[in-house]
Amino acid sequence: MTKTRILLVEDEFVIRLSLSEFLENKGFAILQAETSYDARKIINSHPVDLLITDLSLPGLWNGVQLAEFVRKKHKNIPVIFTSGTFSHPNSTLFKNLTSTHKDIFITKPYQLDFILETIKKLLSV
């Protein structure tokens, strides 16, 4: 059986490492990226079933712009957006993106079990 492939894009090393290890222990295949640039390289060479991305990323693209890029290759991919800066993003770009797709926004800090339940919910719909 093929494992669900999750691309985790998080610039904070400790968060990326702990979430990655937690999800790998739950049976997911995790592809990690620190920046949107790293994530684009992964997307161009690996299939992905779900994207978890911080809204604020180093580099040229933020999490919303990265999700748009990912959806050019994986049209219906669900996305979990996270942020420790925004309580809820209210940009028009974010609203347009999430209104037509299965997306969830979660504020940091979050519980790992909550992320797991959110993943299960997004992938079962």
Write up what this structure looks like:
Keywords: Phosphoprotein. Pfam families: Response_reg. The modification 4-aspartylphosphate is found at residue 54. This is Aerobic respiration control protein ArcA. Residues 5-123 form the Response regulatory domain. The chain is of the alpha/beta class and 125 residues long. The protein has a single domain, classed as Response regulator (Rossmann fold, 3-Layer(aba) Sandwich), CATH 3.40.50.2300. The protein is built from five helices and five strands; from the N terminus they run βαβαβαβαβα. The protein has helices spanning 13-25, 36-45, 63-73, 92-99, 112-124; strands at residues 5-9, 29-33, 50-54, 79-83, 103-107. It has a five-stranded parallel sheet, with helices on both faces. α3 links the parallel β3 and β4 (79-83). α2 runs parallel beside α3 (63-73). It is globular. It starts with a strand and ends with a helix. The mean pLDDT is 88.
Describe what is shown at a glance:
By secondary structure, this protein is an alpha/beta fold. It contains 5 helices and 5 strands; from the N terminus they run E-H-E-H-E-H-E-H-E-H. Helix 2 (36-45) packs parallel to helix 3.
List its salient traits.
single chain, 125 residues, alpha/beta, Rossmann fold, five-stranded parallel beta sheet, 5 helices, 44% helix, globular
